[in-house]
Design goal:
2 helices
Length: 78
């Protein structure tokens, strides 16, 4: 019974850690792109062009990071 509890707890921890990993991969590039775009817009007086471009780039990078993570979860030995 104790082995099953450890196994279940270990699986729960792994799921939780994967969720945390996915969360930072989603929000960090989007927030970084947004703030970088706002900064560039203020620097070059191009509002909102740089913000929109950097936001789109952040979303694309976020998607690529999540796809990469999913591939690593599916094939951990590659």
């Amino acid at each position: 019974m104790a082995k099953e509890d450890r196994s279940s707890r270990s699986a729960t921890v792994m799921i939780f850690m994967t969720a945390l990993d996915t969360t930072w991969r989603m929000f960090t590039p989007i927030l970084a792109g947004t703030f970088a775009g706002i900064g560039l817009d203020h620097l070059f007086s191009t509002a909102p062009i740089a913000t929109i471009i950097c936001l789109i780039l952040g979303v694309v990078v976020s998607g690529l990071l999540i796809i990469r993570q999913l591939n690593n979860v599916r094939n951990p030995h590659k």
